[in-house]
Amino acid sequence: MPNAIEIAGLRKTYAAQGTAPAKDALKGIDLAIPAGSIFGLLGPNGAGKSTLINILAGLVNKTAGKVTIWGFDQDVNPRQSRAAIGVMPQELNMDPFFTPRASLEVQAGLYGVPKRERWTDELLELVGLTDQANAYARNLSGGMRRRLLLAKALVHRPQILVLDEPTAGVDITLREMLWQNVQALNRQGMTIILTTHYLEEAEQMCDEIAIINHGALVVRQDTRSLLSRADGKTLVLDTGGRVPLPPLPDGAHPEWRGDGRLAIGYPPSRVRADQVLDALRGAGIPILDVATEQPDLEDVFVEMTRP
């Protein structure tokens, strides 16, 4: 299957409430997510990410458009499309009086998974909750509760896993454990959709990234091509100390850093690195060492979501 999810003309309008006017949360989203990929869905707060995820999960009714999940039209085959996707929500929503084992058994029952096909013990081991299997959820730490949410999203063995801010507020150990599990699931063929505010995380994990802003799709590209869209690089030079600088090519911006090094930002589309270096050498400025800093996903994100 080439695409795990296909979205066409997706719109969601929330009706006016009291003095609040109607709001267009999604404005005609067209998006295809390849099967077997780790796909990043990014955007600032209020961009429409959660609305899109909730529509995929069957929790919110769309206003218009078509959603196909693992080949099933959401309107024609709602049960099959919902069974193909598992969602790990951002909120820690669970019954405090259930144990992790009981929570997984109930969740499996809700999805109609026969008892002989359940893999509760394996899931508990996968997320590191075997020792807490029979403890009440109210006694689990925040990190353990987040692990339980991941297990609940996997009880019905979905082909697609949606992770909504999965590492928000968790420690480094849990974050590493989570990503090891996710990467292992992806190697087995599971499609992963990730929303996160940790842009470095998306840069390292995702094959492709889509950025949504104000309910519209701003850009969708593979991660490497998206990073190349930020028209800015930085030369970091050791000149042996602060020295007067000559005129530099138009578009180059010098700045002395606290460690005494000279940082010169420049747009590669208009300025070449050798032009900057030639200007410095021509003025007799020694260059003892030079390094280049590339733009990161945060630079692209800010540029793409700028008002």
Would you write up a description of this structure?
- This protein is of the alpha/beta class and 307 residues long.
- Among the domains are: 1-84 and 189-226, Rossmann fold, CATH 3.40.50; 233-296, no CATH class.
- It is built from 10 helices and 14 strands.
- A 6-stranded mixed β-sheet has the order 6-7-8-3-9-10, sandwiched between helices. It has a 4-stranded antiparallel β-sheet with strand order 2-1-4-5.
- Strand 1 and strand 2 (23-34) form a beta hairpin.
- It is elongated and about 80 Å long.
Q: Uncertain spans, ≥5 residues at pLDDT below 50?
A: none
Kindly report the name of the CATH homologous superfamily of the domain at 1-84 and 189-226.
Answer: P-loop containing nucleotide triphosphate hydrolases
As for the CATH topology of the domain at 1-84 and 189-226, it is Rossmann fold
Q: Strands across the major sheet, in which order?
A: 6-7-8-3-9-10
Mean pLDDT: 91
Give the terminus-to-terminus CA distance: 38 Å
Number of helix segments?
A: 10
* Number of strand elements: 14
**Under the CATH scheme, which architecture of the domain at 1-84 and 189-226 would be assigned?**
3-Layer(aba) Sandwich
EC number: 3.6.3.-
Pfam families: ABC_tran
GO molecular function: ATP binding; ATP hydrolysis activity
Organism: Paracoccus haematequi
